[in-house]
Design brief:
The radius of gyration is 24 Å and the shape is globular. The chain is an all-alpha fold and 506 residues long.
Length: 506
């Protein structure tokens, strides 16, 4: 099938050279694969359930907190422009009409375009190097954003902010997916993704404090928001160069037995990953031959519009309820905090029953109800504020389930690296739509157009989830009825989740 299945021995075995495929995840040499299977049996024998739990706790403490802090700072630096706007950014830079919206939009151009190349570089350069360099980059650009003097400078810094942040989210999701089994992943994904909610809450608190520095050294408060938050990111980036985890096969903080066991337990559930083979252009093309890849993109795309609409415009919406600048920042905190808690509850039950689809639809319905209230109610600020809780709880708990569901259903390094980057990259096109969903002139109409746009795209996400779930069910049933596969281990590895023995999680 691939032109190599007839090889039954390593081309270098007779010469005494190390075979090119030395990792037991990926080996076209059948004899070596059999020996690896024996080694797997020995590892399972030596790792008792209690030792496995201790290993998982060790991984949790190293992988999830570090990546969560990384993305918290990335999302904070990306969305703190909403807090800065409350403290006079638009007035000092003399932004007119939709110039503020355009500044938000320019961020997404490089952010979308370079998602897949970034994940390819992540695999090539190792995560600790690539992610820490990108982190320092967007921290430095954020500092520069606090020093701009005009609209052109703001556009330039937003563009380079998008360029340096492009690898953070898909890279982190890809990396987490290579450490955990599918039945374990949702709580970890939701905690990581919850860093966006924590960033929103932290950003509001931080902005309310930094806002009191208004006028210090001749700088308005909005400049200090960018300068101090960017400086914090740069400092953390230096530290994270030494602590960001690499892939399991390269994790020096694990023992040799632990490294092998992590790989074996994932291989048992998901098949071999082809970790050693670099990603080529043909691999990228092959991924897009599967229509589910496009469906996964629309699942995420539909929720990105309301997610970024809230992140960029919530402070302005809350301010219309009659609050001062400092009060607005403080009132923006609780919806973010509650959404994090709700997302973790959703994740817990999703992992417990090993199911994803229902846990995308329930939060989606909650978000639709929240936006529905905001469309029709305009004279009850308490109810409107409560609806914002429903929006954040629904959108920001459904998104990590959707990304985890899609990402963990992709088998192997190559399909997962490309597929995850595609879903995040394509989905973030919705960010461009979000930046123009709430225009200044819509304030007189209680932002009805923006709320309506958000509901429409949430419905698109729900429809895409239905299509993806139906596809998973259909293909699983077809594979159950199909005759036993005669593919070699090498062929199964190359196919990833297209391997007929692979089963998708619903």
């Amino acid at each position: 099938m691939f032109g190599r299945e007839k090889n039954t021995s390593s081309p270098d075995s007779s010469s005494g050279k190390e075979p090119p495929f030395s990792n037991n995840y990926y080996d076209p040499d059948i004899a070596r694969a059999a020996a690896a299977d024996d080694n797997e049996h020995d590892l399972h024998h030596h790792f008792s359930p209690s030792r496995e739990r201790r290993l998982l706790a060790k991984i949790d403490l190293r992988v999830i907190p570090v990546l969560s802090i990384l993305y918290l700072l990335a999302f904070l630096d990306r969305t703190n422009i909403a807090n800065a706007s409350i403290f006079g950014l638009q007035d000092e830079l003399r932004l007119q009409n939709t110039q503020y919206n355009t500044a938000l939009t320019i961020f997404f151009v490089p952010y979308i375009v370079f998602e897949i190349p970034s994940n390819v570089l992540l695999k090539k350069l190792k995560p600790h190097l690539w992610l820490s360099v990108c982190m320092f980059g967007f921290g430095f650009v954020t500092i520069c954003q606090g020093l701009v003097q005009n609209y052109s400078g703001l556009l330039a810094t937003r563009f380079f902010l998008g360029l340096t942040e492009t690898g953070m989210f898909p890279g982190s999701f890809y990396l987490i997916g290579m450490w955990y089994k599918r039945s374990e992943a949702q709580k970890r994904y939701s905690f990581f993704f919850g860093s966006t909610s924590l960033a929103g809450a932290f950003g509001g608190l931080l902005a309310s404090a930094i806002g009191n520095m208004d006028g210090l050294q001749g700088y308005l408060g909005w400049r200090w928001i960018f300068i101090l938050e960017g400086l914090l990111t740069c400092v953390v980036a230096f530290i994270f160069f030494f602590v960001i985890p690499d892939f399991p096969e390269n994790a020096k903080w694990l023992t040799e037995d632990e490294r092998q066991y992590v790989q074996v337990r994932l291989r048992k559930e998901q098949g071999r990953s082809a970790a050693e083979r670099p990603i080529g252009f043909k691999d990228v093309v092959n991924v897009f031959k599967d229509y589910k890849i496009f469906v996964g993109g629309f699942m995420y795309f539909g929720l990105i519009v309301p997610a970024y609409s809230y992140a960029f415009f919530a402070p302005g919406i809350i301010q219309t309820y009659g609050y001062s600048r400092i009060q607005t920042q403080l009132y923006s905190v609780p919806p973010w905090a509650v959404s994090f808690t709700f997302a973790m509850i959703i994740a817990y039950f999703s992992d417990k029953i090993k199911h994803r689809f229902a846990f995308t639809m329930m939060p989606i319905c909650l978000a639709i109800a929240g936006f529905g209230i905001l469309i029709v109610v305009h004279d009850d600020h308490h109810l409107q504020y409560g609806a914002l809780f429903m929006v954040t709880m629904g959108v920001y708990s459904a998104m990590p389930v959707i990304v985890c569901w899609f990402n963990m259903n992709l088998g192997g390094h190559h399909r997962r690296a490309v597929g995850t980057a595609w879903q995040i990259g394509f989905g973030n096109i919705g960010g461009i739509i979000a930046t123009y969903s709430f225009l200044p002139q819509d304030k007189a109409d209680f932002y009805r157009p923006g709320y309506s746009i958000c509901i429409a795209f949430i419905c698109l996400s729900a429809a895409s989830c239905l299509v993806y779930a139906a596809s998973c069910i259909t293909q699983n049933r077809q594979r159950e009825k199909a005759p036993r596969s005669l593919l070699t281990e090498f062929e199964k590895t190359e196919l990833g989740d297209l391997n007929p023995e692979y089963r998708y999680l619903l």
